[in-house]
Amino acid sequence: MVLHCTYCSSKKNTDSSLLPAIDRYVSKRIQKIFETAKCAKVNFVIFSGKFGLLRPTNKIPYYDHLLKSEDVKEHAELISEQLQVMGITDLYYFTESAKSDPNIKPYLECIRFACDKNGITLKIIEEKYSD
Q1: Taking the CA of residue 113 as centre, how many other CA atoms within 13 Å lie in the half-sphere pointing to its CB?
Q2: Cβ atoms of 81 and 41 closer than 8 Å
Q3: Per-residue CA distances from 120 to 75, 109, 124 (Å)
Q4: Which helix (H) or strand (E) holds 79?
Q5: Which of 50, 67, 63, 60 is nearest to 108 (CA)?
Q6: DSSP, res 93
Q7: Which residues make Cβ contacts (< 8 Å) with residue 99, sequence separation at least 6?
């Protein structure tokens, strides 16, 4: 199964109720990739540094957490398990360049590790987004 994925956003809807992930994150990048996945009729997830892989409809609380390098190995185990349960064979990971935003480097390392562990073909699509 093919999966489109992008990392979460530091900008979030601060509403105190549980919100679907697609509504919690305030990001043009996430919205664009979500729409692209729908048009291509492929599954889409948001990679959260706290919760792992979230489907757009997964309800989550407001939180503020940035994945750090020291958390990558442990979090990659969670991501690896989630990918295995979903039966993913090919993952398209949409990201900005880690050179333009060093905070996304741990997310990229994590997704690489998880895909390698599961023998998943990883395609990294680097683009500039206007978030």
Answers
A1: 17
A2: no
A3: 17, 14, 12
A4: helix 72-86
A5: 67
A6: E
A7: none
Q: 122 pairs with which residues across the strands?
A: 91
Taking phi over 0 as left and psi of -120 to 50 as alpha, with beta for the rest, 119 belongs to left
Is-contact 24 64, C-beta < 8 A?
no
pLDDT in tens, 36-76: 999 999 999 999 999 999 999 999 999 999 999 999 999 99
**CB neighbour class for 48 (10 Å; exposed up to 12, middle 13-18, buried from 19):** buried
CA dist 40 to 6, 33, 37, Å?
16, 10, 5
pLDDT tens-digit series, residues 86-98: 999 999 999 998 8
Higher confidence at residue 99 or residue 76? 76
131 band by pLDDT with thresholds 50, 70 and 90:
low
